[in-house]
Design goal:
Protein name: ABC transporter permease subunit
Subcellular location: Cell membrane
Number of strands: 0
Number of helices: 14
Main location: membrane
Order of helices and strands: HHHHHHHHHHHHHH
InterPro entries: MetI-like (IPR000515), MetI-like_sf (IPR035906)
Keywords: Cell membrane, Membrane, Transmembrane, Transmembrane helix, Transport
Length: 358
């Protein structure tokens, strides 16, 4: 049977304001209590653990005796670096406690798990190499051995880093620019795409390092040959992604601009290129990895100075600590390039930050 509604109940419901009957948004208190992201919080226990780990590491470096095979190595540089880092971490933690909403507090919250993991790793590394002698030379090196190798060879390492950076900048820039114009031409002109796209599909996937003998035969110097294969590594992904980005521009954008009187050059500069910019940056990221791989191959055969040349040279002498130092600098160099490219993307695509999860 249908439920009867009394006149009193009906009048009470009808007299209630409409705003009270609609679902209300959460209060400001509820909004403030909701988590804004998933970053780990820098609680007192976590930050205290970080300080404890690095203090333990400093004590291990200073107090424990060296293993028999490493008694001649001085631990002073390691102790100085560890002590400086511990003082910096203490000041960083105090700043975050005094000003919990400061940029220092947010950065500490973000990096604290990595600080803890790095402290634990250094403790294990120091104990197993220089203190207990579980991992013996020459294949395993203690931190003080790596520092001594760097201090003894830093001028040559700096020169090799500069040579690698210059060769990479020349090749990567030339390849990316050429890839941009190739992809733009294929994406904008159907006739050019008809002739160039099959060539891109045929030549582009060929590994850049395999073209080094041909480059050495055709180009006048070994340096230009090395720059060529570095540029080739960047050219293919840049051309492919630029073509895809230009061809995916919405047709109504172009029709609307033409209706307003835009010419071909305006359409390319102000419509096609900005619309294809996310794909072009993807091509730059992909080309970065292939160009770095080509750089390492080029330096082994085509030039007489560079980080890969240095690593291969000291490996031939079985000087593994210096080889590890070269690898560390190479990894730092590659990471720096990647971070710089991320910064460029964030600057050029600032309008995407609230629309696309990076």
């Amino acid at each position: 049977m249908p439920t009867e509604v009394s006149p009193t109940t009906a009048s009470t419901a009808s007299s209630k304001p409409i705003d009270d009957r609609l679902p209300q948004p959460p209060s400001s208190t509820a909004r403030q209590s909701a988590p804004s992201d998933h970053r780990p919080s820098a609680g007192p226990l976590v930050s205290t653990t970080a300080l404890f780990l690095w203090l333990v590491y400093l004590v291990i470096v200073v107090a424990l005796p060296q293993a028999d095979l490493l008694r001649k190595e001085s631990t002073t540089p390691v102790a100085v670096l560890a002590g400086t880092w511990l003082i910096t971490l203490i000041a960083w933690t105090l700043t975050a406690r005094v000003r919990p909403t400061s940029p220092a507090a947010r950065s500490l919250t973000h990096f604290l798990p990595w600080i803890n993991a790095t402290g634990a790793w250094f403790i294990v590394w120091q104990l197993t190499t220089s203190k207990l002698g579980l991992l013996t030379p020459p294949y395993f090196a203690a931190p003080e051995v790596l520092i001594a190798s760097f201090l003894g060879d830093w001028r040559l390492l700096l020169s090799c880093l500069g040579a690698s950076a210059l060769l990479f900048i020349i090749g990567y820039t030339a390849g990316s620019v050429l890839g941009f114009f190739t992809g733009l031409l294929m994406g904008w002109s159907r006739r050019a795409d008809y002739w160039l796209h099959p060539l891109l599909q045929t030549i582009g996937p060929v590994p850049a390092a395999s073209l080094l003998p041909l480059a050495l035969l055709l180009l006048p110097t070994t340096y230009t040959s090395a720059a060529f294969i570095v540029g080739f590594g960047a050219w293919f992904p840049m051309a492919t992604m630029t073509r895809a980005g230009v061809r995916s521009v919405r047709r109504d954008y172009i029709d609307m601009a033409r209706t307003l009187g835009a010419d071909e050059l305006f359409l390319i500069r102000r419509v096609a290129v900005p619309s294809a910019l996310p794909d072009m940056l993807t091509g730059l990221f992909t080309g970065l990895g292939t160009s770095l791989a080509a750089l390492m191959t080029a330096e082994l055969t085509g030039v007489d100075k560079g980080l890969a040349w240095y690593i291969n040279w000291v490996k031939g002498w079985a000087d593994y600590p210096r080889m590890y130092v070269g690898l560390i600098i190479l990894v730092t160099f590659c990471r720096t390039l990647m971070v710089m490219l991320f910064k460029i993307r964030s600057s050029l695509l600032a309008w995407q930050q609230n629309l696309v999860r990076w």
